[in-house]
């Protein structure tokens, strides 16, 4: 009995030591830049300041009317529905059109401000019968097109921006008939994957040097408020709209990156997230094409990743 118990304890201890070594316990609680990584405080890393909401406040942003709707003929996305000021309108896969229902509230509605139905008019050449509204819990009447609730995106700063396209795999620019906008011939959507790239690899950036990219060629980032041991993500909730997790990649489909600690993090929210050296990895919704590094340095907490999983360009 004692022999069996001793053997079991030894096996368990060996397994723990293996995991500890793989996940960088030898860092003694610091990352490559000397920053403490212990139990990171929960925070929502946003587009604007690394934590908090993209709209910069608490509670939902005030719903603004769309006015006379219009159609933007995008080379990338085809016909896209806009408000009277030329800002892209979006729809959310988790909503429903029959019956119309919005599931985006609270912090979500700060990042994705709702479009008020009052005074909205169909785009020229579009059936006015497609325009409708749905009552939200706060009493706001939200614009619907073919039953789908309409939103703007807080990170779109000027007419013609469509940074919300493909965010989280659930947000899409709306076509004039309320369907998802489709890529024009010869174009490509922000969520379209590049060809002939492994699941994870590296590229040489002219300013940052060698950095990690995903299978689409999009820049991969780390959040300074995360920790590697224990593996913990401080980017939750609405933060993930702006910083989608990198989905699991087979080790054999990763080229040029550190394989130690190349493991999958089972997040508390149920998502599975790829790590390098046990650091959780993300992409940035503000990057619209391969080669973009718009997430670099956002909020002083988000940075591109080296092949070894280190922060690139972070202050030391």
From TrEMBL:
PANTHER family per record: BLL4220 PROTEIN
The UniProt record lists the keyword Glycoprotein: no
Matching Pfam families: Lipoprotein_15
Name under which the protein is recorded: SCO0930 family lipoprotein
Residues covered by region (Disordered): 163-204
Signal peptide limits: 1-24
Keywords for this protein: Lipoprotein, Signal
NCBIfam families: SCO0930_lipo (NF040526)
InterPro entries to which the protein is assigned, alphabetical: Lipoprotein_repeat (IPR005297), SCO0930-like (IPR047910)
């Amino acid at each position: 009995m004692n022999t069996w118990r001793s053997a079991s304890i030894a096996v368990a201890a060996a397994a723990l030591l293996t995991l500890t070594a793989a996940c960088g316990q030898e860092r003694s609680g610091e990352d490559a830049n000397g920053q403490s990584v212990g139990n990171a405080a929960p925070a929502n890393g946003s587009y604007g300041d690394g934590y908090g909401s993209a709209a910069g406040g608490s509670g939902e942003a005030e719903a603004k009317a769309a006015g006379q709707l219009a159609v933007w003929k995008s080379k990338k996305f085809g016909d896209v529905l806009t408000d009277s000021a030329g800002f892209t309108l979006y729809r959310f896969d988790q909503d429903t059109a029959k019956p119309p229902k919005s599931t985006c509230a609270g912090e979500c509605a700060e990042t994705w401000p709702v479009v008020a139905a009052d005074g909205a008019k169909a785009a020229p050449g579009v059936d006015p019968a497609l325009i409708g509204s749905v009552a939200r819990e706060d009493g706001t009447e939200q614009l619907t097109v073919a039953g789908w609730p309409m939103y703007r995106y807080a990170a779109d700063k000027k007419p013609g921006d469509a940074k919300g396209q493909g965010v989280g795999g659930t947000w899409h620019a709306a076509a004039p008939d309320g369907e998802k906008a489709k890529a024009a011939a010869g174009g490509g959507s922000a969520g379209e994957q590049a060809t002939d790239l492994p699941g994870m690899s590296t590229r040489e950036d002219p300013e940052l040097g060698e950095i990690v990219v995903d299978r689409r060629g999009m820049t991969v980032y780390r959040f300074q408020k995360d920790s590697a041991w224990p593996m913990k993500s401080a980017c939750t909730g609405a933060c993930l709209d702006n910083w989608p997790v990198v989905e699991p990649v087979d080790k054999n489909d990763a080229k040029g990156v550190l394989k130690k600690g190349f493991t999958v993090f089972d997040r508390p929210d149920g998502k599975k997230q790829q790590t390098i050296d046990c650091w959780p990895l993300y992409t940035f919704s503000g990057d619209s094409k391969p080669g973009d590094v718009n997430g670099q340095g956002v909020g002083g907490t988000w940075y591109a990743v080296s092949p070894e999983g280190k922060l690139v360009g972070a202050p030391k």
